[in-house]
Amino acid sequence: MRLLRPVEFKRVFSAAERYRAGPLTLLASSNGLEHPRLGLAISKKSDKRAVQRNRIKRLVRESFRLHQAVIGAYDIVVMAKPGIATSSAPELRKALERVWRRMADSCDDC
RNA sequence: GGAGUGGGCCAGACAGUCGCUGUGGGGGUAACCCCGUGGAGGAAAGUCCGGGCUCCGUAGGGCAGGGUGCCAGGUAACGCCUGGGCGGCGUGAGCCGACGGAAAGUGCAGCAGAGAGCAGACCGCCUAAGUGGCUUCGGCCACCGGUAAGGGUGAAAGGGUGCGGUAAGAGCGCACCGCACGGGUGGCAACACUCCGUGGCUAGGUAAACCCCACCUGGAGCAAGACCAAAUAGGGGAACAUCUGUAGCGAUACAGGACGUGUGGCCCGCACGGUUCCCGGGUAGGUCGCUUGAGCCCGUGGGUGACCACGGGCCUAGAUGAAUGGCUGUCUACGACAGAACCCGGCUUAUCGGCCGACUCCCCCU
User: Fold this and answer.
1) What was the pLDDT predicted at A110?
2) CA-to-C1' distance for A89 and B102, Å?
3) CB-based contacts with strand B under 7 Å?
4) N or C terminus: which one in chain A shows less Cβ crowding within 10 Å?
5) CA atoms within 13 Å, Cβ hemisphere of A72
6) Is A40 helix (H, G, I), strand (E, B) or coil?
7) Where are the domains of chain A?
8) Is A57 helix (H, G, I), strand (E, B) or coil?
9) Does residue A4 carry a pLDDT above 70?
10) What is the pTM for the complete model shown?
11) Closest by alpha carbon to A83, among A43, A46, A40?
């Protein structure tokens, strides 16, 4: 499931726990649902090339899709830091997996 | 074989597997599921021009502002393209050029130099009439004067070469070349040619300086714009209820008066307030705009070409926190720049590697 509306993004930004996965920053806030939801906020500051931004988004979405069963009921917004384009795909994938696991551990409801 | 010039094309492929999304069909109350089928670029980029489309403005015309700038053609249009002209570069194939006007006016030009735009005597050359000095009495020198041949300065010194001419020189005169104007010839034209005449020659550079001339030109953009439309608050309107009286057993009808709560001791005032329905504005959200179009492919014909005409065939991304990806194999080894966002035509910029045919120069062999 994805986060779509501006209000939903605002809610996560205002009250969220921060996680770091290499050059990625994740904001998580429990949503009271049965499943996690993902929102992406990869700005032009991270990298001005659209191709690179698309690459990051695909990679994050794919990792989220494969692990969504183990993540708790969180709304998650993923942001990228400048210079992220230098990171390789396997690097980012590993970092994300570690974060998903930490999230799952700290989730009270599951 | 080497070096090079200018075009066209491709932009990893195949298989498996897990996903995303448009669409057609089927199933399901629905969420959704199953099957089929489509899914980024040559630049999708920069947003620099031109057009379509949309809304706003607009009687018509002019000015201002902006743009374009050799000529002809192509085109929906262009600052684009094609062909031609002119100038420059290259042995050549070819390449490059904001390439109208400087005898309408204004402005600008560092350094050097005597002088830089109605030219100018620093050196030099000439002269010895006049003034002055020296004198071996032949002359010599300075001033005055003449001179744009030569030197020197400069990006540029006011046509070039030769002959005549002269005190020395000078378009001063002549010939040839160049230049300007007029005519002629060729060309639609830009322009070219120089058979002809005229002029001794003047007109320097700069117009991505103002300017002049010719032509073009409303503004804003798909977050354009059109439609549907909650919840909450609020606007306009109607009816009814609430109170009293009368008539009636009653439902109700008629008439009249405004009521309650809060703030005030009280009055006035101020604020808030019932139910139902209708109307219009409008937010979140949603739908359309949204992909069939100056479209693509093939053929025939016309044209040097850009391109056009005709015939046949094809449908080829339409997302909206924004889809085309991940993984694993294999392949004469690994791959650049880079991601559609209303749509077209161009330009410019970025770019690994490869393929095709055309042309030029050099070398070697036959």
Assistant:
1) 44
2) 67
3) A 2-6, 9, 39-41, 49-51, 54-55, 57-59, 61-62, 65, 89-90
4) C
5) 17
6) strand
7) 6-101
8) helix
9) no
10) 0.72
11) A46
Provide the CA A83 to C1' B29 distance, Å, integer. Answer: 51
**A6-101 placed in CATH 3.30.230.10:** yes
Strand runs (DSSP E) across A22-98, as ranges?
A: 24-30, 37-41, 74-80
Residue of A95, A80, A67, A101 whose CA lies nearest to A27 = A80
Give Cα separations from A27 to A50, A64, A84, A86 (angstroms): 23, 14, 17, 22
Task: Name the closest nucleotide to A88, judged by C1' and CA.
Answer: B326
Is-contact A26 A60, C-beta < 8 A?
no
Q: Which nt has its C1' nearest the CA of A54? A: B339
Q: pLDDT tens digits for A5-59?
A: 666 777 777 767 888 877 888 888 877 667 788 888 887 777 778 888 888 888 8
What average pLDDT does this structure show over A82-100?
A: 80
